[in-house]
Each structure stands twice: as C-alpha cells, then as structure tokens.
Write a structure and sequence with these properties.
Elements: E1 2-6, H1 11-22, E2 26-31, H2 38-49, E3 54-58, H3 64-71, E4 76-79, H4 86-91, H5 93-114, E5 119-125, E6 137-139, E7 144-146, H6 163-183, E8 186-192, E9 195-196, H7 208-217, E10 222-225, E11 231-233, E12 235-236, H8 237-249, H9 251-254, E13 257-261, E14 268-270, H10 275-283, E15 289-292, E16 301-302, H11 307-313, H12 321-334
Parallel strand pairs: 1-2, 1-4, 2-3, 4-5, 5-8, 8-13, 9-12, 10-15, 11-16
Antiparallel strand pairs: 6-7, 11-14
Helix pairs in contact: 1-2, 3-5, 5-6, 7-12
C-alpha cells in the first residue's frame, strides 16, 4: 500500500509509520512538527528505515492545496493530525476548529477529489460522548464505576459535543461517516480511548499515562485533580495499530461506520489510586504527588464498549495496563535525554 499519515510524526502516527514500513509499505508523513517530540519521532523513523519507502512533507491540514499535492496516489489515509487538548480548545477555539473540523474536512475533500478509492481511517475520540453527567455512577473503595453500563459506553450512546474540542472532533467524526454515505468514500471513524505507549510525549492536559511516567522518571511532581479514583480504559498503541490494520483490510465490508477502540472493561485503571502502585513499583520509590480541586467536566468514569470492534474487526486488546505501562516506563527510562 501507499499510506498517507496526517500527523505522522506524532505519537500514534510515528508508531503507525514504523509498523507499516516494517511490512514493506510506502509511507508518506504529513506533519507541521508543532508538537513536542515530533522532530525526534521523525528522526527515529528515518534512522530506522532510511528514505527509500518513507517520505516526509512538512505541511498543515488547514491548507487544502498542500494536502491535495501530498495525498495524491495514496490508497490508504490515516488522518491523525489534531489539536488534542480540551484546555487548549477552550483558550483558542478558533484554532481548535480550524485544525480539527476544517482540517478533517480538507482531508476528506482531498481524498474525494484526488484519490476517492483510498481507505480513510479517522482518529476520533471518546470525548464526543460528553461528560456523561446523565449516567449513574457509584463510588467504590478505590474507584468509581458505572451503575448500569457494565460493558462500557456503546457507539449508540447519544453524542454530546462538550467543549470546543468535543465540538471540533465531533464534527470531524460526523463528516467522516457522512462522506461514506453521500460520496461513497471508504471511511471509518475510530472513537479512541486513552491510547498510550512508547514515543508518547504526554503533558498534563493530554496523554496522562505518559505524563505521569515521564514525571516519575524525571523526578518531577505530579498533580492529581480530584481524588484519583477516576477510571479510564487503557489501550496500548500496538493494540490500536492492529485494529487499524484490520480496518484497512476490511474497509470494503465495514466502511461508513463509527467504532469504539479502547481497552474496554477488562483493561481499566484509575488515574491514581490503582495507577500509583504500578508506577512506584517500576520506579522503586515513592512518587511526589500534589492534589488539587476537580477540573470542570472531568469524567469520573469512561470505559468504552468494544463489542462492535470485536465483532467487525475480530479484534480485542492483548496488552494489559500492567504490561503496557512497564513497556512505556522502560522506553522513557532509556530515552531521558528527550525529556
């Protein structure tokens, strides 16, 4: 395949590029290198793979003409470029809209007009389900839990585009689905939960698993907002890429749909009460932590129902949070010069 990856120098993009290059595919990375770690990820890819099958184009999804020139000839498009933080979207909603909503529209239009047979996978987000204020939860000894949704939130749950980020990503999600319906494009909108793994340069507002691991390795304090019992379902980037791979293979059968991709109910962890013992065991000593007030809109629980992914993709996560966090910790410990 000739695979085009917008945001290909980012965490997920770089791991995808490495995976598909190792399989012998040609990969074009399209990235503006605005994110921390982008240049490092790009250098790593070229050091490992050379330039024969890997091409880099410095560009921005907000510029349609650049996209058109870069995407032509592709038969698979992974649209990963995004503004990723809710807090940033609140501070600068116009920029958030232009990158996430307009950028996704530009990618779809470039594909429709110049490579309409290409498969398009869109990295959507569980944030389009909103704050889940109407979903009953219960507080247990170490964690919160859904009262009713034991298998997690399904794709049929009502969408609630809370925050400018939720609106911009949600708009992209719906455009991706509708371009399959109206124009016959081969698209999938993949609603992702808490992806983590090597080559992730997490910060406080996004990529909390990597952020906590980096903070521990670099002996920096960690801030916990709330009581640390908030639950998330974790998905290692290697498991995500396996889902991408099957999605591309089966696009003719399953295109035009939204699919949750997360750890599901078997791969949940609280952000601190259960995460802390794992991290301190790896670190070999206590981790410095500060507690602060709850942040507005912070979900007490999010767990994705991944039954549809299992059914349509024949896929399920293989890497447990304990294994995955160890993998990430070892990578950060071996690459401290990057932080």
């Amino acid at each position: 395949m000739r695979i085009f990856i917008s945001g290909g120098a980012g965490f997920i993009g770089a791991n995808c590029a490495e995976h598909f290059l190792a399989q012998g595919h040609a990969v074009t990375i399209f990235d503006n290198l605005s994110r921390k770690g982008g240049r490092s990820n790009l250098d790593w890819l070229f050091e490992k793979n050379g330039s024969s099958a890997l091409r880099f184009i410095e560009g921005d999804v907000r510029n349609y003409d650049w996209l058109v020139e870069a995407v032509q000839g592709s038969n698979a498009v992974l649209h990963l470029a995004s503004q990723v933080a809710v807090t940033t979207s609140v501070e600068d909603p116009r920029k958030d809209f232009e990158i996430n909503a307009l950028g996704t529209f530009n990618v779809l239009e470039a594909v429709r007009n110049h490579c309409p047979d290409a498969a398009v996978l869109y990295a959507s987000t569980n944030k389009i389900y909103g704050g889940l204020e109407s979903v009953p939860i219960e507080e247990q000894e170490t964690r919160y839990a859904f009262t009713d949704f034991n298998q997690g939130i399904p794709e049929t749950f009502p969408l609630d585009f809370h925050s400018p980020y939720g609106c911009s990503k949600g708009a992209g999600d719906q455009y991706v689905i509708d371009y399959a319906r109206i124009y016959g494009l081969k698209t999938l909108s993949l609603r992702q939960s808490c992806i983590y793994g090597p080559r992730q340069f997490g910060v406080e507002d996004q990529g909390w698993v990597a952020h906590f691991v980096i903070a521990a390795c670099m002996n920096r304090p960690i801030s916990i907002y709330g009581n640390g019992k908030q639950v998330r379902d974790l998905l290692h980037v290697s498991d995500l890429i396996r889902a991408y791979e099957v999605g591309l293979e089966r696009i003719d059968e399953i295109g035009g749909q939204a699919i949750n991709l997360g750890g599901g109910p078997d791969n949940t962890l609280t952000i601190w009460t259960e995460f802390r013992p794992i991290l301190e065991s790896l670190h070999g000593r206590p981790v410095d932590v500060n507690y602060a007030d709850w942040r507005p809109g912070d979900q007490r629980v999010f767990v994705a129902n991944i039954h549809k992914a299992k059914e349509l993709l024949g896929w399920e996560p293989l890497i447990s949070p304990q294994e995955g966090i160890k993998d990430l910790y070892e990578w950060v410990s071996s690459n401290k010069e990057l932080f």
